[in-house]
C-alpha cells in the first residue's frame, strides 16, 4: 500500500475503519497510487443509496485525504444466472434514484448496462486508472467471488466495506449456529450502534470530469422497460408495479408501515392473509439492494417506542445479521456442507427414503402441484416477487419431500427463490432456505421419513390456521391495479408461450387460433392409426431460458430425448452421422408441447381473425364473418409475417419491420409403408435431392401404429413447387427419397402432402419480438428470434415481457 493510501486508511474515523477489509494491496513500485491515478472508484451494487452508506463514506473520505475525486460505478450485466426483467427493472429504478442523489452531492456516477449474457464488466476498464477501488462486503454469491476476481485482475488496491450490517460482520469474529448465541454475542454492539445518528462524509474535491472510456446510461431520461427488452435476460419474469425500486419508494413503504403496522407487528406478522400495511413491512427488497439504510430503519424503529418495535428489531438485527454472518464465514452457502453436522448426517441417512411424489421444475415454478397453500405461496413468488416469511418456511420444507434428494431440494429452493423473489440472492435468503434443512436449528426426535431429525412442518396444519381463501385472493390480485385484457391472434408455440406467461402473472388472456387445435407447425396428424409429425420434426434447447422447461417436459413425459440413428443420404448411399445435436421430441407427438402450453390458457380454435381495429384506446377483434370477438387493451399477433402484416397494416412502425422478413415454404409428405423400408436409420439428412430431411416417425417415443415416415422438401424445391398439386408433390418426393437412399423394393399404403406456406425465414430478425408501446400492439413468432421451436418459445417469452414491463410503467 502506498504511503498516501496508508495515511488515508489511518485517518478513517472508527465507525468507518471498523468496516474496512483490505482485499488486495498493490506494491508501491507496481502501482502509482495517487501520484498518477485519476480517481477513487466505489463499486456500488447492494448499498444503492447516497446517504448513510459506509462504503460511499469511506470512498469520499479517502478521496478527500488523497485529493482525488470519487467515481461511483454501478454495472448491470447479463451474466448473473437469475437476471430477468423483474430484477433489472427494480435495480435500474433504484439506480435512477441514486443517480439523482449523487448528482445533488456533486459526485460522479456511472451506470453501465451490458446487454449480452457473459459480458465482461466495464469496471475492469477503469480499475487501473484508480488509486483505490472500494467494493461492498456483500457476502452472498456471486459477489465475494466477483470481488476476488476483480482484485486479481487489477494492480489497483481493493478494499471491501461492510455497508449492510449494523454490527460489522468481521467484528463478530465467527459464524454462529443458533440465534440465541448470536444475540448474546452482539447485544452490546447493537446497543451502542443502533441509536447513533449517521453523518454522511461530504466531498471536498470537485466532481470528476474525466472521460471514463466506457458506455454509460443516463437513467433520468432512459425508458427502463426498453433497456430490459434489449438485454439477453429472462423476459418471462416481469416487473412488479406495486413494488418499484429506489429509496423514495422504499422509505414511502417504511413510513406507512411505521404509521399503521409497526405497533401490531408482533401480533400479526405470522398471518400471511393480512394485507399491508398490517402484518409485515415488505421492506426486504429495499434492504437487499440497499435502497434504504438499515441504520435508519433500526434507529427509527427503536425511537418509535411502540409495542411491536422490539420484535421487529429482533428480526432486523438478530435474524437478518445472523444470516449475513453465516454467509460471511461459510465456505459455500449453496452446498449441504454448510449445514450443521447433525442435519447433514440425518438428511444423508434418509436421502433414499421414498418420496410421496416428485415434481418437475416447471410444475413447481408455476405453482401447479395441487396443494392449495403451497401453490398459492409459489404464485405469490411468481407474480408478485415476494413470499411471506412464515409461509416461506412451510413452502421450503415441502420441497424436501417433493424432490429426489436433499441436494436437489436445496438447488430447487435456491432456483425458485432467487429467480422470482425481489429479495432473492440475499444472505437472508440463504439463511431462510437452509433453515428449512436444519440451519440455525436443533435436532427433533423421533426421526421422520425423509426429514430424519430435521424439524418437519406440516402444510396441512399451516393451512388450517390460515384463512386460505383470503390468502389465495390476495396472491391472485393483479400485478398492476389496471389489469389489461389481452387478445393473442395465433396459437402456435410463440403465441401460447406469451399467453401462458401472461396468465401466470395474473393477466387476462384469450387466444384465437385458426386451426382445429393449437400448435402451428408443432403439429401431429393422426389417421389410419398412424402418427405423423408433419411440421417440426424435433427441437433443440441451446438457451438456458428454454432448456429448463425442456428438462421439465422430459421429466413429466411430455417430451423425450431422441436417441435415433441419424445418417446422411446421397445418390443411393448412406453414411452414419456421428455426434451432433441433442434432439428432443414431443410425446406422443410434437403437438404434445402445444397442448401442454395451452392447457391453462383460454384458447378458441377454428377462429379465423381477419381484423384488429383501434377504437377508443382499445382493440376490437373480428373474424372472417365480421363477428365481434371482443374488445381488448392489448393485442399480440403471433403469426407469420405476411399474415401479421395484413392484420396490422395500419401500424407503420411494426409494418416496416415486418416487411423486411420473407418466409420460405416447405412441402411435407407423409408416407405410410406396409412394412419397414430396408433402412437402419431413424432420420436422414439428404443431399443433392429435392428431399432435405426424412424421418421415421414410428421410431420416436410413444408413437402408435404402423410404419410411418415424413419427408421434408428442401426450401428451394418447395419454392419452385409452391403451387404444385399435393398428389404430384407426394409422388415426386417419395421417388426422390427412394433414389437418395437406394431403396428398391418397398410397398406403400398411402401418401399425403401438406404445404407449410410459411415454414422458415430467409433471414430471421434478431429482436425477440416487435412492440409498439404507444398503441399496445405487438408481433412475435419464430421469425423474430430464429426459425426453430426454441426461437418461437423465446419470442413469445419476450412478447409477454414487453406487455408486463409496459403495464408496470403505466
Question: Could you list some keywords that capture this structure?
Answer:
810 residues, alpha/beta, seven-stranded mixed beta sheet, six-stranded mixed beta sheet, 30 helices, 26 strands
Q: Please count the beta strands (DSSP E, at least 2 residues each).
A: 26
Radius of gyration: 30 Å
Walk across the major sheet and give the strand order: 13-12-21-22-23-20-24
- Helix-strand category: alpha/beta
For the report, how would you describe the main beta sheet?
A: 7 strands, mixed
> How widely separated are the two ends?
51 Å
Describe the protein in words.
The protein is of the alpha/beta class. Helix content is 38%, strand content 17%. The strands form six sheets. It has a seven-stranded mixed beta sheet with strand order 13-12-21-22-23-20-24. A hairpin with a 4-residue loop joins strand 25 and strand 26 (777-779). The longest helix has 21 residues, at 309-329. The chain starts with a helix and ends with a helix. The mean pLDDT is 94.
